[in-house]
Amino acid sequence: MNLNLSYRELHKLAKDLPRANNAIKIAVLGNHTTNFFCKALENHLLLAGYDPSIFEGDYDQIDMTLIDESSQLYNFNPEFVIVFESTLTIKDNFYAIKSNLDRSQYYKQLSNKAKSRVSHLKNNNCNAKIIYLSYELIDDALYGNLFSKIPHSFYNQLWKANNALINISENENSFYLFDINKHLSGTTNHRDWPAYINSDLHYSIDTFAELSYHVTLFLKALKGNFKKCLILDLDNTIWGGIIGDDGIDNIQVGALGIGKAFTKLQKWVKELKDRGIIISVCSKNNEDVAKTPFLEHSEMILKLEDISVFVANWNNKADNIRYIQEVLNIGFDSMVFIDDNPAERDIVKQSLPLVTVPDLPEDPALYLPYLSSLNLFETASYSDNDKDRTLQYQQEAERRKSITSVTNMDDYLKSLEMVGTIESFKVEDIPRIAQLTQRSNQFNLRTKRYTDEDITRFKNSDNYLTYSIKLKDKFGDYGLISVVILKKINKTTFFIDTWIMSCRVLKRGVEFFALNKIVKDLLNSNISILTGEYLETQKNHLVSDLLDNLSFSKIDEGFKYKLELNHFNPIKNHIS
Amino acid sequence: MNQYLDILNELFREVLDNESIDLKPETTANDIDEWDSINHIYLVVEIEKKFNIKFKSSQILEWKNVGEIIESIQDKK
Lengths: 576, 77
Hints:
heterodimer, A: alpha/beta, Rossmann fold, seven-stranded mixed β-sheet, five-stranded parallel β-sheet, 40% helix, globular, B: mainly alpha, Non-ribosomal Peptide Synthetase Peptidyl Carrier Protein, Chain A, HAD-IIIC family phosphatase (chain A)
């Protein structure tokens, strides 16, 4: 994917691309000509490895389409509904209002409309997430900078409307606001006025291409595909100079000169870390030398405790990144590698094409603005649990070291002194549970993505049995790491709707521990059969034989399974 | 005239995804299936980019065939 593709370059690149087996269904509803947006979005999704189907609503019929229960929209059954309103059309509607009092309340009309659109979807049993584009802040140049004092000015109303949309988003799980203004501010000529007048083209076609790039990044994040780890080179990347040559007193970081640029980059990295991004270091250095600035330089923002995996040696960087990937157990496609040296970047790009490797500008003053412009860290969920991750990964690195000292896996697992808890969903765990369904790609039997609302629905429904599993061991607490959702088929049969687990606890026997408890629980409720299936994706091969290992038997040649609970023998594990 | 026609022909083929397009000065939108009102917008933008010109709104609205597009380009060059 590439930010700077023109509409035509994008068209050319996507033209002969084979479609991956990775469907995504999106409806686009707008009050202007959205053809180019839809086409560009389709092309960007193709480049991102999806097989997109796009439903384009009729011109300026957003509400009709949503209200009408028999509309093609509901037949299409989208996963995402993108509402894209042009402020130019809104302006015409606004000017049609005569009274200034009504004009000063116009933002409420807009926000009520947004709310009712959410309800229409729900009333029609559509579980799609709504991505609502914010209103482009277009000053109609009537009141100049007095606009903020004039409630009935159009520009004033637009600011209020966008604020009202943020309020909706904070309170409505399925509603996401996509801010168009930040993406337009970087582009010149984002509108072609003659094309607007002659052809109702509200943005230039290249602007549509750029917007659809950012929407695609957001959709990817909502589908569980986002960046989890930032890997940093050290010399001339997070400080100026070379620690091994220049020494601690001469590297540049802090309030003076170019040091400022590195400090600002470090502050951003620190904020990312606090948001839940895993920070790792990959540097060609001796380890103790590389660590000195972190320990001794008073102006370093980043400290050793911020770094999950610290690799400093003279090996090939691609190999070192492979090592980091193993420790963290996340996909290469969720990693970003930052290095000032084009040769090092090239090695990594060549050997690990899935890792994102931005081409840093030469001037360190441009590092941060450039990295921000790439919008690398789109995300679909956030929970307080994210903050604890660094410690968890550091503990994992410790565990790795202890593995090497034990030869027998059984002994090793025993030595971990693991304690598990399994219980039905609790209210306070809902965000974490939803997040696991969004994030987990590998240990995920059916890859169903759920929102907080979905999880609450399962929790409160008699037709579902829900289990969340927590684990600790002598090195630390993993927290909530696995989720099982069972759906009632009939009085005696339940079906495994979801079985996911964080890869941090792979090969610990958590799935055996969980199944033993679940079977006991089901038998107590006179349920005798548990059925399941494996839905294959590009990433979940890990669990292709999960149900076999859990002693289920195949019902047919495919991936459908069944377990007779009365004949089930508890499976050995080392979790108490 | 011919030099512009060749460039336009290549551009039309790419933009309209149709390798069999063979433009003549008298070709109109009716002669090419893919040349609809939406793709017309796309074509205008790409012609402007290709020749680094900006048409006037009045020109765009008046074109009757490819020959007239070329006249507009020559005007601007």
